[in-house]
Amino acid sequence: MGDTTRRVVVLGASGLVGSAVAARYARHAVDLRLVSRRVPPTPPSGAARVSALTGDLTDPVFAARAVDGADLVFHLVCHRLPGGSWQVGEDDPVAEAVNTGTVRSVAAALARRADRTPDRPLPTVVLAGSSTQPEDPGAPGTTPYDRHKSRAEGLLARAEAAGELRAVTLRLSTVYGPAAPPTRDHGVVSAMVRRALAGEALTVWGDGSVPRDPLHVADAARAFEAAGERPAALRGLRPVVGSGRPVRLDALFSRVSRTVAEVTGRPPVPVVRVPPPEGASAADATHTPADPGPFAGASGWSPRIGLTEGLRDTVLGLWPESAPA
User: Which of 37, 139, 251, 314 has the fewest Cβ atoms within 10 angstroms?
Assistant: First the structure.
């Protein structure tokens, strides 16, 4: 099968990572279908034949339509609360339906695919996971989001064992970076950049010693591309994908403050330590090391964008957003 007939589907194409993956695959000579709840950003012109499909992926009928004829599916869907947080409650059925139920529907639709022939490879699903998700979805001390991701990963593993698809999960660290309008990054780094641009103090919980591993969205998109193009090399791996250069949150926020000051010419805003809020999860106070070595060795990928360049890139991307009308 020639590359020009390969159908690549990006689920969650209007999100930060989804729009970046779409931009990568716009360069490939493929049939590129961008699926999201709202109209996704238009990727740069390239060799791909691009189409967009909008709707609710929690509807199994729409999910089946979204992945119809797919050879490669990127599942980059994530439920967020109205304010942008993904730390949902235990009894949030919508979050489970988005984070796990959509994977169940996609796997079922691909298992029923009628156009499978001996010379056509099994479809591949590449799932965006979390570096903090447990191996056991019932493990204590983890967030509902992490458990949703673990259950989704398990669904794909069972479908793969049944010979219905090939599955890869990339367990991502803290992804950040500029987003193409109308996409909005709700992550902690962009949230702090927006605060600094507004002249507000940056608040860090506790002593700020908890490390995070910031991964620029362009590096994350390249990681998904590498996984999509070489799924066989990743068989049996559940790699954590990060920069491999963790930084304490207080140091990260200080660098955000200084970068905003350098770009805008204004004084840096202060970084203030505050007690963790009521309801903060144990995951907020822990760090899962993100060693990119196993994934890099299997896929050929490596992170390219350092924190200094990445933060400046993010500030420049968000600065126009903060300018007065």
Answer: 139
Assign 3-state DSSP to the chain and report helix, strand, coil percentages, each to 5.
Answer: 40, 15, 45
Beta strands in the chain (DSSP E): 7-11, 31-36, 49-54, 72-75, 124-130, 166-172, 174-176, 202-205, 211-212, 214-216, 240-241, 247-248, 271-274
pLDDT in tens, 57-95: 999 999 999 999 999 999 999 755 444 444 555 556 788
184 C-beta neighbours (distance < 10 Å), count: 14
More confident residue, 297 or 79: 297
Measured in whole angstroms, how far is the alpha carbon of residue 61 from the centre of its chain?
A: 24
The helices-and-strands tally (H runs, E runs) of the chain is: 10, 13
Residues 6+ apart with CB under 8 A from 2: none
220 DSSP 8-state letter = H
Please give the C-alpha separations between residue 204 and each of 189, 259, 270, 318, in angstroms, as whole numbers: 12, 17, 11, 21
For the stretch 205-250, pLDDT in tens is 989 999 999 999 999 999 999 999 999 999 888 898 999 999 999 9
